[in-house]
Amino acid sequence: xxESLGKTIVVDNRPGASGNIxxxxxxxxxxxxYTLFIAGSGNFAINPSLFSKIPYDPVRDFAPIALLATxxxxxxxxxxxxxxxxxxxxxxAKAKPGALNYGAVTGNGAHLAMExxxxxxxxxMVHIPYKGAVLATNDVLSGAIQATMxxxxxxxxxxxxxxxxxxxxxxxxRATGLPDLPTxxxxxxGFEATVWYGIAAPTGTPRPIIQRLNSEIAAVVxxxxxxxxxxxxxxxxxxxxxxxxxxxxxxxxVKWGRAVKISGARAD
Length: 268
Known about the structure:
The protein has helices spanning 2-5, 20-27, 41-50, 86-95, 109-121, 133-142, 152-160, 207-221, 224-232, 242-263, and strands at 37-40, 62-77, 101-105, 126-130, 147-151, 165-169, 194-202, 236-237. By secondary structure, it is of the alpha+beta class. Strands 1, 2, 3, 4, 5, 6, 7 and 8 form an 8-stranded mixed beta sheet that branches.
């Protein structure tokens, strides 16, 4: 985009408060097209329900530009678990209520996705809270806990080494880079819970600027070299119109809000 727009693009990392600090700064920036925000499933869809109050409204304070990419979570178990498919895991959990557990950081996407899975499957695998996703994965690798809903890039190396057994991914369709791995939706129709990233601007940004940026982003994401890199990292490129991204955000806020309520998680 720097080349096509003839502008230098500076990445300004503002960590803290699960992305709320960066989102507040972007929401209050001048709506002139020079400050854009990397919106994600965490700061736009989960945080409004996870926190009692956040300093921005993802719908009111931002103008959606484009969805960039989505990525599934991977449902995986320790090889000792007597289940080689999603259907078998559900049957095992129903046969042994409360005997299976999973690890996840409280309130993060993996935790909430697993709670949506529990609800959809009519089971109750017990949540074991961790301070970091790597710690949770390590305990599944050791057999201390039975399952995890992990990031696909982080978990697949362990799957390939035989240290984890992959049962399915949480996207609606099979991943381009993992065509042999079934989706959870193939067992639980309609199930979908993904990590996603998009670009938004402060509300009030002129429509011609939004349209121009959408076109430029689409051109970049369609670049074969970038698409190859995204797919290799288990992301699905997904550029659409600003209106489609806006509708998607609203749907995701409802979905993850329900997941937060089911989990009982709070960040404050």
